[in-house]
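To: structure desk
From: M.T.
Subject: fold request, one chain
Message: Could you run this one when you get a chance? Sequence is below, nothing fancy, just the single chain.
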Amino acid sequence: MNHTALKFKLYFIYLVFLTVPSCLVVVSQAFRIDSLQNVIATQSNDTIKVNTLLLLADEMAHVDLGKSFQYYKQAYKLSENLSSSYGMAESLYKIGLYYMKYNNMPDSSLPYVNRAIIISDSMNYLGLIVKSYRLKSVCIKVKGDNSKIRFFALKCLSISKELKDSTDIGKAYAELGQYFYNQANYDSAAICYMKAIDLFEKTSQVKVLGNAYIDIAKNYIHIGNNDLAEKYLLRALSIEDELWRRTYDPIIYDNLGIIYSNKKDYKKAIEYYDQGIEFALETNYKTEHAYLLINKSEVQCELGLFSEGIKDLKEALRVSREIGHKRIENNALSAIASNYAKQGLYRKAISYSDSSLIILKKINAPHSLLATLNNLFPMYETLGDYKSAFHYQTEYFQLKDSLYSVEKMETINDLELKYQKKENEAKILVLENDNLKKDISIREKTLQRNIISYAALGIFLFVILLFAFYRQRINKNRIIAEQQIKQLEEEKKLLAARSLVEGQEEERKRIAKDLHDGIGVLLSTAKMQFTALKDKNPENKDLVDKAGKLLEQASVDVRRISHNMMPGLLTKYGLNEALADLFEQLDETPGLSAKMDTNKESKRLAENQEIMLYRIVQELVNNTLKHAVAKNISLNLNYTNDTLNLHYADDGVGFEMDKQTENISIGLKGIESRVSFLGGDMSMESETGDGFRCYIEIPVE
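Reply: Done. Structure tokens follow.
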């Protein structure tokens, strides 16, 4: 009894030691949240309130993501009211981070990140520029576009070195490591990761250090150094930051499972995968949850546990569809198809492979598509459906041919020639060894034969290389010619579109001039004639007065139509004056306040740019007057050396952006086409009851 009681006491003490630290973390976090909420409630200084809202949103991200997002939006609106550029940029960055980090929505994140970059760049907030570019890099990487990753990483590295910020320099090296990792350049990736780890260890930045440990471990897994990879993952597990561990523990256990799967220790691998799944469910980390299920199913398949593996894969498929992650969905579909194929259930395997094909064609993943096609046609052949087998085999070979360039074929030919040369040299060495045992006369004959063979081989190699060079040159010239033709066609289309638009504006000018100088003069003359007629015929005075009023109204309408088609201020004084005049007229409208601001009072642009921009603002104003029921309209023009940033806003009824593509008006389509014609970018924001905002950036001369 005493022994049992002692064991129970020891077990109780052990549980206390396990639970007390996590309880202290939760209590500490709740205390911080309560303190920040009290500051917001009692603080009268709006600038301090913005910073406190951002801190509170960060803390709430670990407790309630919905409230966290609302606090970020409150911080942005308050910063906008204060005209605090730093608060706006920081809030926009945090909103973009929320969409990407917690919802995996790069398309929703990018507009906020781009605006944060614009504001930070204009105000030279270097630290915020680095963070925003890093987040933009993550977004485009998730979208599958790796073309600018290296550029963003080098830009962040340059700014961080200027700021002498060791942590950000380390993060930039980590980004470069990720770029080289994606390019399968694992040696360069390892060098960059080691530089990052060295900097993080010196600055004691445990969170980013943990990320670097995970990245370098993944790199070592790919080059087959499982022991070194495990060492770095165990280092990451030793990091004591609870909030960091909540996010990254599932990833660490996932990679440990992969290592032991590579070592064929499947029991240990499944234990690690189960630990990772448990943490992912606990923290609602759905992306990594799906990856863990897929990786675990591979081990189950190796052990012959097909039903358990397929069950996990179907759960991964459900999770991937819930979060809209197409690549994970494809991985799950491909794995299910593979499992069914290994069991000989080819029709089920084909069904899931067909679903995988649809996704792969949508996300443009040719190498994965090639692998799926290569698995499909043997299954159709086994089932006796030779027509389908032939169709997919043909599609496979067509795709395979398109993926391998002329340079790769030349590399293969070169390797083959080198192999032949080495083989011939080996044969010659054997002959020479044999000839050593023979007399001098036979050696001389052999030597002559070898000389002839070398000469023939040299001629043969020269002809092959000459042919390969000639073929490469022909293909290169053909590709250049095709590119030139495409470029000319694009230039021709652009020129035609430009001519059409400029022609329309010229026709507007001509019609406006004819209305003003022709019909306007005729109406004025007619009015004078009626006035003279009134003096001569007093008995028709009322009728003549009425006709005179109609003529005067017609003259006013002609002048108004002429002005709308081509404002005189636009051609004489430029865009700023014309828009200022437009907003003065709007401001005189009862119940409507219209304000316009610009950082350059007199700034002339190219004539076609001024006309286009005036039409864009006209259409925005028309949409507001027709649909928004707004009381306030604002327009801000911000000129830089080579761009014009236009910010238009109203406080009308607004609309849901999710439904914009279904119900978009002709006016908004016209605005988008004009912005595209000017080579600019455009983004819109609106919510029901929260007005409408439009951001346009145009390159100008």
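Reply (cont.): The chain has 27 helices and five strands. Let me know if you need anything else for the meeting.
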